[in-house]
Amino acid sequence: MLLPIYAIGQPVLKKVAKDITPDYPALQELIANMWETMYAADGVGLAAPQVGLSIRLFLVDAKKPPEKRKEDEPDTGIKKVFINARIVEESGPEWTFEEGCLSIPDIRGDVERKKRIRIRYLDENFEEHIEDFDGVSARVIQHEYDHIEGILFTELLKPVKKQLIKRKLDKIKKGEIKVEYKMKFAKRK
Questions:
Q1: Considering the domain boundaries, does residue 108 fall inside one?
Q2: Catalytic residue among 144, 149, 155, 180
Q3: Domain presence at residue 188
Q4: Which CA distances in Å does 180 have to 38, 97, 154, 185?
Q5: What is the largest CA-CA distance in the chain?
Q6: If 0-12 CB within 10 Å is exposed, 13-18 middle and 19+ buried, where does residue 172 land?
Q7: In this structure, are residues 99 and 93 in contact, taking their beta carbons and an 8 Å threshold?
Q8: What range does the domain containing 55 cover?
C-alpha cells in the first residue's frame, strides 16, 4: 500500500526517532509498504519519519538497476533495511555530492559528508550487524540516518544556498507544489 510522504514542515521530520522492538505492530507490512512507496516515488531511500512514524527504521536501495549498468559492470550498491541504527564512526575525507529528498521535492543541493561509515543496526529479522560502507551507499545511509535523528539535508547546505531556496521551501510547506506521489503537508494556520 502506498503511504503518503510527509513534506518539510511536518513536526515528525524534526524529532529524534525512538527504537522499536520485534513486536512493533505490523512491522513486516510497514516495511513492505515503505519499499512500495519509495519505488513509486523514484527514491533510493525512505525513513519512517517520512511516512509519519517517529521510529528508528529506514530502508535503502542504492543498487544500480541492471538496465543502467554497463555490460561488464559489477552489481554494486546495497538494498537493506536498517532498524535502531547507530552510526559508530565516520571517516575519510569529506566529499560533496548533490542530494535531494522525497520530503522536499524539486530541491537539490550540495552536501558534504564523510566518505566512509561504520554502522550498527538490526535487519528486518532483528539480527544485529556492524558494517562498513563507503561512497554512494554510505551517503544514502547517512541521509536516511539523518531523518531518524530529526535532520533534513537542507540544514546541511551552505548559507547562500539556504537563502536561495527559502521561498521554495515555504511553498512546499504550504502544499503549493505538484508531485507525482502522495504527500502530506503541514496544516495551514
A1: yes
A2: 144
A3: no
A4: 12, 25, 21, 14
A5: 55
A6: buried
A7: no
A8: 5-179
Question: Is 189 domain-assigned?
Answer: no
Q: Annotated catalytic, 144?
A: yes
- The DSSP line for 92-160 is EEEEEEEEEETTEEEEEEEEEEEEEEEEEEE-TT--EEEEEEEHHHHHHHHHHHHHHTT--GGGGS-HH
Residue whose grid cell is 512493533: 24
User: Is 64 strand, coil or helix?
Assistant: coil
Q: What is the CATH number of the domain that holds 119?
A: 3.90.45.10
Which amino acid appears at position 99 of this protein? E
Instruction: Judge residue 54's burial from the number of C-beta atoms within 10 Å of its C-beta, 0-12 exposed, 13-18 middle, 19 or more buried.
Output: middle
**Residues 16-64 pLDDT 10s:** 999 999 999 999 999 999 999 999 999 999 999 999 999 999 999 988 6
- Looking up cell 541521509, which residue turns up? 143
Give the predicted TM-score (pTM) of the model. Answer: 0.93
How many domains are contained in the chain? 1
Asked if residue 187 is part of any domain, the answer here is: no
How far is 49 from 4, CA to CA, in rounded Å? 11
Q: Is the pLDDT of residue 106 over 80?
A: yes
Question: For residue 75, is pLDDT > 70?
Answer: no
